[in-house]
């Protein structure tokens, strides 16, 4: 017998168990418990974030470094200690303090790797400062990035304990810089969130005109941010998770939760203005927004999953954390936001500060769209020209590793490293270490290198020959025998090498070394491995992204042309953002404003992350707009009318959503770490270009020019789609 539940008494319907609600609450409580556990692990130190993950597993550079450390207990130094004494580097006091420093660091570094101005006989001139008051001590902390990170604070404390007030120490090198970057990245996260939350609330207050409605996205963002923190903690207890993951996925969590909850609030606002009661308006908002949120979260997760095919743990950890956070943002929006909507929605009238009508288009968006519709050829030409101008700097991009200049210019580690770079120009760039099968192979490899294009600018050190500043020293420095042995050598690139030229040097040295059964290790060899890991998989990443976007748009609109156009315009806007990033960070045009030091290059990891995140964030906006256009075209058969109506009805929500997400990433872009700064500023620029140039000008203009052929091969009846 079939019972009509609507005919039952209200008490009977209420008394019936709601198993789906019980399941929902159980899942919610489980997520909260897991996130609390993850947060406790992260705060207590049981779960630690990794400073590494930038090298492919079992890559050339990693294996070469392991060979050097296991065979000779040496390798490219990751600690540089500039010891300065008022009485001069050659004084007895300086020698005594230097011995104490060397003894203090001996328990933390490989002793054979220690190279000191005071331990070579005669003293090596390249290790003496220009003013004669300082000398340099270099050493290698062994192990992986995480082991090195744990040693650095203890090594620094040991050095400080033996240096008297009459002397001063500046510390640099990769280990010191990475430690400073890690600390700064975690500190910047708190500052960014302190900026984002109040700015978001004020913006939402202007959009909705109600304190209670403005609170809903803010509270949802705070909840998702907590979930993101817990997820990173849980993942870090099971696998290597990059220290940068916390910044990136926290920004992603805030941005997505704001976007999803903004959709719910706008739907609720529209339903309540149509005369529905509070519960009815909430139910209507949920029924119409649930599928959109699910689709957007699925597409964003698919974009993040593309990073998993890159053989770098740094990107894989961010991808896994990002996928979890995207799912969490969707769950928060579908479970917690409706509860907030019921509570806060009832207070809308009492907390209203201004009257708003979300169905009315904004002046700027209305003007741009109507201009594009009236003059589509001119609008297409002008917007395309602007994109070309923005893209152009990207064609001159140089990829090189980050060093101390990845820190803000006010950082202590940056200032100390800059001092070392100035006083010891031969150590302004990290040395390259060679390891050969025998001394004959080593001599042949070094001979080829010195006869090559970079030979005149290189200092070389082996157990049997030393060349410093173009001058050959016939005698062997005693301490260097233990550093190099008969099969290892050191190449010192001078201060004349730029990061881009150092990458060319690394390629040249690697080729020459391979011809003589010799391997080479160093930061720039590491970067070559990193670039190979990224760019060897980059075509596959692009193919997967392209297929995913095309299928998503085609499934929604049943138009192949509009799907292809969406893919092309998506990559065009991203290329424009890449170009702007090169113009800002490589060429340094806004260096003083953003507080960084331009090096004439950018790290290769930044653009790949930028590609994935920006494409995923802009994708749901594109899907919603195109879906609405297809729906209106199905009703009227007039492309121009469909575009105008669709943009008018979505702009009052899509524009604030893009603005708020951009604010989140601008706040992240204020970081004191250049890599995080590049991702934050780049994402904000990508969203701005996408929301203004692409969605408001180029999309309407091109769709007007193509007319009904947008929907080919289903010209006459595009599929009914979701609308916002």
TrEMBL record:
Keywords: Cell membrane, Membrane, Transmembrane, Transmembrane helix. The chain crosses the membrane at residues 22-43, 189-208, 214-236, 243-268, 288-310, 317-341, 538-556, 568-585, 605-626, 653-672, 678-698. Residues 93-348, 501-718 form the Membrane transport protein MMPL domain. Signal peptide: none annotated. It is found in: Cell membrane. It comes from the Bacteria. It is a multi-pass membrane protein. The keyword Iron does not apply. Its main location: membrane. SUPFAM superfamilies: Multidrug efflux transporter AcrB transmembrane domain. This is Membrane transport protein MMPL domain-containing protein.
């Amino acid at each position: 017998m079939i019972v009509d539940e609507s005919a039952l008494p209200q008490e009977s319907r209420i008394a019936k168990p709601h198993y789906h609600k019980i399941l929902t609450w159980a899942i919610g409580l489980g997520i909260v418990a897991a996130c609390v556990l993850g947060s406790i692990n992260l705060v207590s130190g049981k779960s630690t974030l990794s400073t590494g993950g930038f090298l492919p597993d079992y890559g050339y550079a990693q294996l070469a470094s392991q060979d050097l450390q296991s065979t000779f207990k040496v390798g490219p130094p990751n600690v540089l200690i500039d010891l300065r004494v008022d009485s001069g580097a050659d004084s007895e006091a300086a020698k005594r303090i230097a011995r104490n420093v060397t003894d203090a660091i001996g328990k933390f570094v490989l002793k054979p790797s220690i190279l000191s101005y005071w331990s070579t006989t005669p003293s090596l001139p390249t290790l003496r400062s220009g003013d004669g008051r300082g000398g340099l001590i270099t050493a290698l902390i062994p192990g992986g990035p995480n082991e090195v990170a744990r040693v650095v604070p203890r090594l620094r404390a040991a050095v400080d304990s033996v240096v008297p007030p009459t002397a001063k120490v500046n510390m640099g090198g990769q280990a010191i810089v990475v430690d400073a970057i890690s600390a700064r990245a975690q500190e910047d996260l708190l500052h960014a969130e302190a900026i984002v939350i109040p700015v978001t609330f004020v913006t939402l207050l202007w959009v909705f005109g109600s304190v209670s409605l403005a609170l809903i996205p803010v509270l949802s963002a705070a909840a998702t941010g907590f979930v993101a923190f817990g997820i990173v903690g849980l993942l870090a207890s099971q696998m290597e998770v990059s220290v940068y993951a916390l910044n990136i996925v926290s920004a992603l969590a805030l941005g997505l939760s704001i976007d999803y909850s903004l959709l719910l609030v706008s739907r609720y606002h529209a339903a309540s203005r149509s005369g529905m009661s509070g519960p009815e308006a909430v139910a209507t908002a949920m029924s119409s927004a649930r599928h959109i949120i699910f689709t957007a979260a699925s597409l964003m997760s698919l974009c993040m999953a593309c990073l998993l095919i890159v053989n770098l743990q740094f990107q894989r950890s961010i991808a896994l954390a990002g996928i979890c956070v995207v799912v969490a943002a969707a769950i928060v929006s579908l479970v917690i936001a409706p509860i907030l909507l019921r509570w806060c929605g009832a207070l809308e009238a009492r907390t209203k500060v201004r009257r708003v009508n979300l169905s009315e288009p904004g002046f700027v968006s209305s003007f741009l769209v109507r201009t594009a519709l009236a003059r589509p050829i001119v609008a297409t030409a002008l917007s395309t020209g602007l994109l070309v101008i923005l893209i152009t700097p990207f064609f001159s991009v140089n990829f090189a590793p980050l060093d101390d200049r990845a820190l803000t210019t006010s950082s202590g580690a940056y200032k100390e490293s800059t001092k070392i770079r100035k006083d010891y120009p031969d150590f302004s760039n990290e040395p390259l270490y060679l390891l050969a099968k025998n001394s004959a192979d080593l001599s042949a490899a070094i001979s080829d290198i010195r006869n090559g294009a970079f030979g005149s600018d290189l200092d070389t050190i082996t157990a049997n020959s030393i060349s410093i500043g173009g001058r050959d020293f016939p005698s062997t420095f005693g301490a260097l025998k233990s550093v190099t042995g008969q099969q290892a050598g050191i190449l010192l690139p001078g201060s004349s090498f730029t990061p881009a030229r150092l990458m060319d040097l690394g390629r040249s040295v690697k080729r020459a070394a391979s011809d003589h059964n010799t391997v080479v290790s160093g930061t720039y060899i590491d970067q070559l491995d990193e670039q190979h890991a990224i760019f060897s998989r980059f075509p596959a990443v692009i193919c997967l992204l392209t297929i995913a976007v095309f299928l998503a748009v085609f499934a929604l609109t049943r138009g192949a042309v509009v799907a292809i156009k969406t893919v092309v315009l998506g990559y065009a806007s991203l290329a424009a953002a890449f170009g702007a990033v090169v113009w800002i960070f490589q060429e340094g045009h806004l260096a003083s404003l953003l507080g960084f030091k331009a090096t004439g290059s950018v790290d290769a990891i930044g653009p790949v992350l930028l590609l994935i995140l920006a494409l995923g964030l802009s994708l749901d906006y594109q899907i919603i707009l195109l879906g609405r256009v297809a729906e209106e075209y199905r009703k009227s058969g007039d492309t121009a009318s469909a575009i105008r109506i669709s943009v008018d009805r979505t702009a009052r929500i899509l524009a604030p959503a893009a603005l708020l997400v951009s604010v989140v990433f601008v706040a992240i872009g204020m970081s004191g770490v250049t890599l995080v700064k590049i991702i934050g500023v780049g994402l904000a620029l990508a969203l701005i270009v996408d929301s203004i140039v692409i969605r408001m000008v180029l999309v309407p203009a091109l769709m007007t020019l193509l007319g009904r052929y947008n929907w080919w091969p289903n010209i006459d009846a595009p599929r009914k789609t979701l609308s916002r």
